[in-house]
Amino acid sequence: MTQPTDNRREPLPTALSLAAARVPVLPLRAGKGPFGNCPACAQNSCGGRPNMKTPGPCICPHPCHGWAAATTDPDVINSPTWARAWREAAAVAYHPGGAGLTVVDLDNAEAIAWARTSLPVTRTVPTTRGEHWLYQGVMQSANAVRSGVDIKSTMAYARWLGPGTGTITALPNAVRALTVKEPTAIRPTAITVPALVGGGECPHRTRTYLERGIAMAEQRITAASTAVHATVYRTFLAVLSTHGRCSCLTEAHTARLFTAAQTKGESPRHCTDAWTNARTTLGL
Q: Could you give the CA distance from residue 13 to residue 21 in angstroms, rounded to a whole number?
């Protein structure tokens, strides 16, 4: 990332400098809350959530709240719609994931001490209470991954506090691992499907066919970097469309799929809902 001008006292010039360096930006109110960045959402008149880190719901046709409003387009940044926001802005925020970055937000001295012994050295930016450690690469964002530590990357914003010092290094597995939840014990919903016409015999030539299908489904879920819930649902749908009407699919197979989903952050309830919705879609 090219280092932009450090001119935090003037939000608009700082935002344009960041945008020129391909860092998506948005204005922040005092208190770190984003603005509603379209006329319909001014002063929260749309009933949306401009103080939240996720967009909408609102009545405007495009996302305009939080990280979803971040842009590198100077015409948008200089537009009349954003003019008042920049005049009232207390600071500039940016979307780390949109810039190809991940921010490890260390909120206190204890968190900083942990990072210095646990994470690779990278560019650091002082904050009011701690430090931001910047890495090259994106991942899912998460709060409170450990005491005093948040991860800000995709679908999140971070306050711009200057370019920092040091060289940005590649996002390490040690940071990615912070958001991986240990799978909880699950009891998959028992599968009850209609018998096939003609006796319900398994139409597959060998059990290897099913084993290969389950392994591929696990791999598809594990490899998902975005839209995890949608990927889980589509994978469940594919498995059930192929194997859901014969006796070869067992609870053990379902448990493998649920476990793969939970390692990506899905809850047992989300797994059950996705499985049920897939069965309903297929009429099982």
A: 13
Q: Cα(181)–Cα(171) distance, rounded to whole angstroms?
A: 19
Helix (H, G, I), strand (E, B) or coil at 55: coil
Alpha carbons 9 and 99: distance in angstroms, whole number: 22
Q: How far is CA 217 from the centre of its chain?
A: 21
Taking Cα atoms as reference points, which of 95, 145, 98 lies closest to residue 265? Answer: 145
Tokens 């897939």 -> residue? 278
Residue with tokens 């207390």: 90
> Could you say which DSSP state residue 191 is in?
P
**pLDDT tens digit at each of 284 positions of the chain:** 555 555 456 899 999 999 999 999 999 888 777 776 666 666 555 555 444 444 444 555 555 667 778 889 999 899 887 888 888 899 999 999 889 999 999 999 999 999 999 999 999 999 999 999 999 999 888 889 999 999 999 888 999 999 999 999 999 999 999 987 655 554 554 444 443 333 445 566 566 777 778 888 888 888 877 777 788 888 888 888 877 777 677 777 888 888 888 877 777 888 888 888 888 887 77
Are 243 and 249 within 8 A, CB to CB?
A: yes
For the entire predicted model, the pTM comes to 0.60
